Amino acid sequence: MIVPVVQTSPHAVIPPKQGVRTILVVDDSRAQRHLVATMLRSGGFNVLQAASGEEALAICGQVEVDLVLSDWMMPGMNGIEFCRALRRTSRERYTYFILLTSNSDKAAVAEGLEVGADDFLAKPVDSGELRARIKAGERVLTMERELRANNTLLTDTLVKLRQLYDSLDRDLIEARGLQQSLLREREHAFDSGRVSMLLRPSGHIGGDMVGCFTINPRQMGLFSFDVSGHGVASALMTARLAGLLSGASTDQNIAILRGANGMIGRAPADVARAMNQLMMSEILTERYVTLAYAEFDLITGRVRMVQAGHPHPVVQHRDGSISFLGSGGLPVGLIEDAEYEGFETCLLPGERLLLVSDGVTECPRPDGEQLGHAGLERILKSLRGLHANALLEALMWELARWAEGEDFQDDVSCALFEFHGPPGEGGG
Hints:
five-stranded parallel sheet
């Protein structure tokens, strides 16, 4: 490489900047090459020379050339062919290409532009015009390299974001497994009935949870709750609240009290009050929870319940007809000292009670129409002959038909208790 010599000659072209440092002069005339090279060296550029297109192409394969000044008419590979061949090579940096020509034919100029030439310079070369052409190339190359640097930065940033998203995705998949593990049993059989449950988040993790627990040999609790919002915060809240309704002791489960003769169930309305007080005083979050909780007497079929902003509990009778229970109620964790009212029903052998989240009742069709309680009633009547998890899976199938797709907008959860009757009566 030729060491640049900076001179103060009035014929100096321009000092090298970021855009143009190394210039390749290509001409089969040794005198013409040296004339142009002298002009460029006086401007402080690194100047390389080639006597043919083939030689120039070889140089460009070994050296980072910023700008090429190439004669058009040369034996062998001419300037047009050299330009075309250069553009076909894989190069990270763009090379500005100026054709030197005495050909002013418009068709010839168009051909040069078509194969990739950036500019033209008439021969003999005028130092002032050469200076202007290089300045124009400098502007283009500076912008190109700034753009390339920005693209590189953007690409690097996108790669890092993709790595971050992949890491988050792996964490969320693991969190999904952990959340699903909170629902230890999807189906549990009692002497007088059977519980079946389904939990299907709309994303990796969700805010719905269902579950059941044994209070004592005669009593069982079944719950369904839905934390407002979606994502990690809702899932963390779900795990926290699920812990309040797990286990079979007063230390672990807010729905269980210690009575004179062992464990007994706390009134469902009091369960909602206790959860509301805990959320308002200890958990301190802007999120709220809708809850449906039912306590079953496994001998008589008596059911004590509370509804706190959750969809109405559903009883399906032996003839397939449907009853919706409850009057709504306030969500949990929304208003301090909120009051909740309990209510009761009694299941007959062969009847069942279903708790669902609003991901079921508010599931929309593509036109926005929600399934609603009427739609749920229609589906349950059509599925009256199915039981246990087969019923819940069929319910999901019908919900997907309604939504015209299985990618539900909200979490979906169901908790089902089918009462067979007191042990020994042959229910089922």
